[in-house]
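comment on this one:
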Amino acid sequence: MAGRPEDGFLRFDKVTKVLQAGRRGAPRLFIPGLFGAVLIWAYWQTLWGLTETWSTDPQYSHGFLVPAFALFLFWQRRDDWSSLALQPSWWGVPLLLFGAGMYLAGGYIYSPWLEQMSLLPVLAGACLSFGGWRVLRAAGPAIAFLLFMVPLPGRLDRALADPLQRIATLASTNALQTFGLFAQAEGNVILLSDYELGVVEACSGLRMLVVFLATATAVAILARRSLLQRGLIILSAVPIALLCNIIRITTTGIMHETAGHRIADLVYHDVAGWLMVPMALVFLGVEMLVLSRLFIPVDPVVLAAGLAVPRRPA
């Protein structure tokens, strides 16, 4: 069936309006686009150093997934971006200057951590400068999540590894003794009946803590929960990660005493390492189930209607 002649003019009119809107929006996008190009040029070496760390250090191999998840958060809110009115704010300039200062200071004192961390305030300042507070509020979770792509400073890494090793050693020793097995802690070594199980720095649980903290934060961002519940989900990542590492060491000690050293070493270094994150996710799922029973969601419309109903006199 042939269409009406005026249909073609209607479609042409829509295309014309889109092209005109694009020409009007082009000058507005020129400065942010130029800023993005300069940002990539300035941080090229820093980003390249990050990818090298993710490729060579197993503790931060999850770094490749962090920018991907941040982009997913942007894409998930694609419907909100179209309704946001751009209201540039000069308050973004102090954030940009602060980030630039961090970047220059990191280069001056040769601190890769400062250079990498400076990207966060720069991105936040760019959102505030070009889009305003609403744009920063919408992009804030994605920008904040980029924190997990930056490796910990060397001193903080070592400062956390020592107490985590000690906690894992003592807790695993007590667990083995609870199961009726001979176990004694000497430093970061667990003495079994005929074997010494060393809780080395790689087994301190710091890698598991970093990975699962990022995972729990991602779950908290995506979950439709209250701010209090999201905070509890993020905070619970620390004890859950420690518990999973203790279970791993305790299970290895039990297998040394029952199944033999060869099988125990295989489980300790291969199987248990792969199972720690799924086990932690199970604990997190149980926690979210408990939270859903403790906190009952209330529809704001129903709540407002209930508050609007006048009380009957006693």
About this structure: The two ends are 73 Å apart (CA to CA).
